[in-house]
């Protein structure tokens, strides 16, 4: 019996090291390392040469070894309470884009408003030696939960929402002023029975926007009617439920400011279902100016916040904190503005939800 000779096994490929790559390119190991980490001291031409050499030799950047040398991993955590909300989705895009341009990778936590899930994520970031954290605090986040980041020396920036007495940096919008603008707009159109729909005083944005609403009413000697303040979840279903409750009042509102655009979308859906035209029959103002707001039918009057700029600023501030390691906490506040579209209109004689329903039934 004859046995066929075994096929020779291919030799194991030698692991390509940083030194091998540098020798292949005729560069110093320091220059190659800087180029791989996208440092500004290296020209774009050199960086492209290094990337091409990495592909040619099959070099894989060892982040674990690099982090031992530099004490930085290049990893950053971002905790967002609801990535299905278009506001937060667009904010996240800006944050990730800016961090990626600085050579950092984002690890995402969708906290679903759970402080426990958020805390577990923060613990994991510490265990894996992440470089920093950007967090929109979940409802119910305790001050102590975020203050421990200072003890851990983990750089962190709060975005959109803040938690008091944390001594952390914050990037957000002037929400009190924003809701003040929204309410003033409706008062200027002749409305006095104005509902405040959505939000919760358990979060800073809810408290600040409610304060802006009350401030505008009080300036015009309009009493705040607590029955017109209807908290609800920040989604379309919440908007439907909130406007249904407001329309159930004996003295119904003629207009509403909404905690967020996504709440306003639900409000307008329910108004239309009842035969009440958003704009001519009942004015609606949102908050955030997400992309969908301009495309809605009718297009939504809303408060524009500079969410892209906010996301960029949060990422830049965190990068500064990581690199400096000793900056004092900072607050970066962006000014909101009113964007007027067709969902808000002048209060006309007989322009009440009751009259609108009567017209819809008649026709």
Strand line-up across the major sheet: 2-1-3-4-5-11
Strand-residue fraction? Answer: 5-15%
CATH topology of the largest domain, what is it called?
Answer: Rossmann fold
- Write the element-wise H/E pattern from the N-terminal end onward: HHHHEHEHEHEEHEHEHEHEEHEEH
Largest sheet: 6 strands, parallel
Helix content, binned percent: 40-55%
For the secondary structure, the number of strands is 12
Oligomeric state of this protein: single chain
Cα-based radius of gyration, to the nearest Å? 27 Å
Low-confidence stretches: 358-363
For the termini, the CA-CA separation is 98 Å
Indicate the CATH architecture of the largest domain.
3-Layer(aba) Sandwich
Domain count:
3
Q: Quick check: average pLDDT?
A: 90
Description:
- With 363 residues, this protein is α/β, with parallel strands linked by helices.
- The chain is built from 13 helices and 12 strands.
- The strands form 2 sheets. A 6-stranded parallel sheet has the order 2-1-3-4-5-11, with helices on both faces.
- Helix 8 packs parallel to helix 9 (204-219) and helix 10 (236-247) crosses helix 11 (261-273).
- The longest helix is centred in the C-terminal third of the chain and has 18 residues, at 307-324.
- It starts with 17 loop residues before the first helix and ends with a helix.
- The model is unreliable at 358-363 (pLDDT under 50).
């Amino acid at each position: 019996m004859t046995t066929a000779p075994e096929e020779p096994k291919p030799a194991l490929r030698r692991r390509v090291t940083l030194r091998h790559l540098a020798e292949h390119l005729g560069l110093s190991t320091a220059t190659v390392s800087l180029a791989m980490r996208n440092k500004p001291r290296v020209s774009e031409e050199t960086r492209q040469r290094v990337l091409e050499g990495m592909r040619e030799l099959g070099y894989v950047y060892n982040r674990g070894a690099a982090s031992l040398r530099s004490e930085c991993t290049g990893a950053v955590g971002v905790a967002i309470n609801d990535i299905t909300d278009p506001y937060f989705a667009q904010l996240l895009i800006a944050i990730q884009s800016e961090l990626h341009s600085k050579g950092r990778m984002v690890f995402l936590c969708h906290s679903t408003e759970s402080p426990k899930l958020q805390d577990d994520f923060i613990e994991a970031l510490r265990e894996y030696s992440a470089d920093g954290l950007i967090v929109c605090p979940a409802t119910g986040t305790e001050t102590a939960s975020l203050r421990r980041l200072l003890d851990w020396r983990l750089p962190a920036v709060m975005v959109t929402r803040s938690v008091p007495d944390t001594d952390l940096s914050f990037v957000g919008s002037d929400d009190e002023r924003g809701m003040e603008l929204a309410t003033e707009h409706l008062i200027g159109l002749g409305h006095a029975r104005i509902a405040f729909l959505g939000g919760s005083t358990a979060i800073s944005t809810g408290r600040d926007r409610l304060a802006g609403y009350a401030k505008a009413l009080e300036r015009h000697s309009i009493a705040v009617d607590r029955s017109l303040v209807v908290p609800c979840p920040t989604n379309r279903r919440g908007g439907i439920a909130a406007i249904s409750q407001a329309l159930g009042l004996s003295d119904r509102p003629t207009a509403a400011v909404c905690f967020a655009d996504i709440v306003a979308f639900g409000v307008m859906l329910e108004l239309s279902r009842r035969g009440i035209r958003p704009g001519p029959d009942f004015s609606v103002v949102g908050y955030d100016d997400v992309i969908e707001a301009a495309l809605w039918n009718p297009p939504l009057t809303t408060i524009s916040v500079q969410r892209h700029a906010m996301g960029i600023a949060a990422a830049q501030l965190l990068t500064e904190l990581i690199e400096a390691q000793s900056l004092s906490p900072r607050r970066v506040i962006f000014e909101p503005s009113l964007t007027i579209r067709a969902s808000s209109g002048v209060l006309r004689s007989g322009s009440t939800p009751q009259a609108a329903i009567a017209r819809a039934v008649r026709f």
